[in-house]
Amino acid sequence: MFDAILIEKNDDGQTAALCQVDESSLPEGDVLVDIAWTTLNYKDALAITGTSPVVRSYPMVPGIDFTGVVAESGHPDYRSGDRVVLNGWGIGEKHWGGLAGRARVSGDWLVPLPEGISLRQAAAIGTAGYTAMLCVMALERQGVTPAIGEVAVTGAAGGVGSVATSLLAAKGFGVAAVTGRTSEEDYLRSLGATSIVERAELTGEVRPLARERWGAAIDVAGGSVLANLLSVMSYRGVVACCGLAAGMDLPATVAPFILRGVTLAGIDSVMCPKTDRLEAWRQLTEYLDLTHLDAITQEIPFEGVLDVAPKMLSGKVRGRVAVPVNSEL
Length: 329
Description:
With 329 residues, the protein is α/β, with parallel strands linked by helices. 29% of the residues lie in helices and 26% in strands. The relative contact order is 0.16.
């Protein structure tokens, strides 16, 4: 038996509670992992609160990522004692996830934890940090270099935005940190932001094209924020989009694409090929300032997850949220 957050559905709707789960209830998989650390992500908060139909089957253990130690393995790449990290692949949505003491998963979903990163640090990076790295990699694949000027980062005080700001600064980019919480200016500048932009500047009426402002951007918002970003991109600017915090709609026109040659790069961290995952974790090891990671991360106890989830959706949580499960591992 082990502790887990369990989401269940009945005639009155969805409920989420901390309870004891028997190992025999775990879904199929060829690797059993003792979870050391997990995290609370925006998608987890949506799942726990039932705000969005994230959960595809019930009952479900949420948690879209975790770090831990292999307990048993039938997979050729892993053996007992290996340190591993898992991000995405539908855990916490279709397959029981990381907000539990143990997980049974496909070994194909796991990534060996790079040397130089602890289990806690890997959890603090988590899916948000790994997604931020995928966004930076996407910009660089499109030829974006520091010579382009500042890169705009929306939701800069959140999990993805905080790590993206730190990574871009480490690679020599200027960062225009877009946030609805200007009280976080000192925090964002400590991560490497070179300017602070109020989110309200990107939430007004969307024009097909506006004054060119940035050559690249990382967006976690979607909606009118993304539409406004596209309208102010410089000629051949690039936007990497990975989120929908401001909505799934995109009230834009084709003008930025056909008149300025703007590129919109979609970032999917869930089904991302393993080669990209390995490269993302390699670069995180090389470029992410671990002192920044400490500033970005807060810890909450397992029993605090249910209380913090709605606060995350209302924008009251800064940076990353790490949850110790078996932190002695």
